Amino acid sequence: MEMRGGAPGSGLVGRRAEFAQLVRSIDEPGGVGAVIGEPGIGKTALVHRLLAEAGEGRGHLGGALATVSQISYLALRRAVAAGLPSGAWVREPAHVAAAVAAHVADGVLAVEDLQWADPGTLAVLELLAGRVRLVLSVRSGDTGSEPALALVRRMDATEVLLRPLETADALTLLDSRAPGTPPNAAAALLHRAAGNPMLLVELAAGEERVASVVLGLLARLRPLPQLARQSMTLLALAGGELPIELVAGVTELQASELVEVGDGRVVARHALLLDAIVERIDPARRRGLRAALAAVLGPSGGPTPTAGDDRLRELRAAVAVLSTGAEAGDDAAGASALDAATGAGAGGLTARELDVVALVGEGLTDRAIANRLGLSVRTVETHLASARRKLGAGNRRQAALLAGADR
Fold first, then answer.
1. Beta-bridge partner residues of 62
2. Which of 35, 45, 236, 247 supports an S-S bond with 266, CB 3.0-4.6 Å?
3. pLDDT tens digits, 133-190
4. Which of 385, 392, 275, 280 is nearest to 339 (CA)?
């Protein structure tokens, strides 16, 4: 297909090769190209540039919407509704496909966010393969991504995979949006954006935009299985890197483009996401979980050969209860699970139990201790009961004395 203007894709930072691949995919009538990648990686920029260079009147752009995915043929209506009678949209997919094909003719039909498309749209698109030029985009890591990708493969589409920008390209993009950024600040922005163009642009716009970026990253965790979400918490606690044998759900995390894997290690891509996860964990439990993780890793940085499996199971249980307990308002359950993960059953007091009995020794009530440590009264009672059981103490005062906390 002939593109108008100068060099194809000129002005696309770091995406010239991918743009050329997309153009080749629709060289012939009936060709299908699919742009695939994580949110913010540049799928829309590629699709819109192709339609712009296809020539006026030849491009037809539609897209699915997550909030109204129940409306039949919505993505197609947004692309060609003006050219079809309203009655066309109440027909079966075969009739809709024929009407759309006649309208698009030798042009290009582009449908974005295929992962949110309704079944009718998906059926029509499959019928259109080989009949009109199709350009699709698919967000990776969404609940609808796998069915969308399965359709892309049945259509024998050319898959254009968008990877994170190389450092030089990311710096070029940053210079175009925030010229004169000091080198140290630029390096920090590039690190936090991890090659994602949208994140980089948002971060460069100022700290007031960071909150929305963080919420977007956290939203990418929701469709993941529970074990994969737990693994992201472990990665956050570990500073972003763990041996692959300690990370469950690696396949799902890779598909969501949240991690990279190599040399037996799993490395998280987004420092912003790791910071957000850690900040949402109570500081006391954060310390306990990190201590438990250190016990699992051992001094060599790899899993300990004897106790690693049991400790890892206990650690995962604590991470799981942190989320489920928080939803149910049960922070005592979280405290109990964390005690197990940090080895409280071995006979010694945990750091938090020592904090509690120390304040008991100062004469504070449970409520005063809770206020001092930022815990609930119920959690303080749980820690104190656990300490008394381990120490064989008959009452709270005796627990403080036996722990050497009386001041």
1. 111
2. 247
3. 999 999 998 889 999 999 999 999 999 999 999 999 999 999 998 999 999 999 999 9
4. 385
Domain around 208 = 167-219
pTM for the structure as a whole: 0.66
CB 166 within 8 A of CB 195: yes
Chain mean pLDDT for the chain:
82
Distance CA(303)–CA(244), nearest Å, equals: 10
Are the C-beta atoms of 352 and 372 separated by less than 8 Å? no
Q: How far apart, in whole angstroms, are the C-alpha atoms of residue 239 and residue 313? A: 20
Place of tokens 């969404």: 142
CA distance 370 to 189: 39
The string over 290-315, giving b where at least 16 C-beta atoms fall within 10 Å of a residue's C-beta and e elsewhere, is bebbebbbeeeebbbeeebeebbebb
Amino acid at 214: V
Angstrom CA distances, 65 to 93, 218, 255, stand at 19, 20, 21
Which of helix, strand or coil describes residue 175?
helix
Spatial CA neighbour of 53 closest among 135, 152, 159: 135
Query: What DSSP string runs through 117-157?
Result: --HHHHHHHHHHTTTSEEEEEEETTSTTHHHHHHHHHHTTP
Please report the pLDDT score of residue 389 as a whole number. Answer: 81
Number of domains, the chain: 4
DSSP-H helix ranges across 266-307? 271-279, 283-297
Quote the CA–CA distance of 257 and 41 in Å, as a whole number.
10
Q: Are residues 121 and 43 in the same domain?
A: yes
Based on the domain organization, do 42 and 143 belong to the same domain?
yes
Dist. CA 74–CA 70, nearest whole Å = 8
Do 130 and 204 lie in a common domain? no
Same-domain pairing of 98 and 193: no
Name the 3-class secondary structure at 111.
strand
Report the distance separating Cα 124 and Cα 122, nearest Å.
5
**Rg (alpha carbons) of the chain, rounded to whole number:** 27
- How many CB atoms are closer than 10 A to CB 17? 11
Residue 313 lies in a domain: no
CA-CA distance, 365 to 318, in Å (whole number)? 27
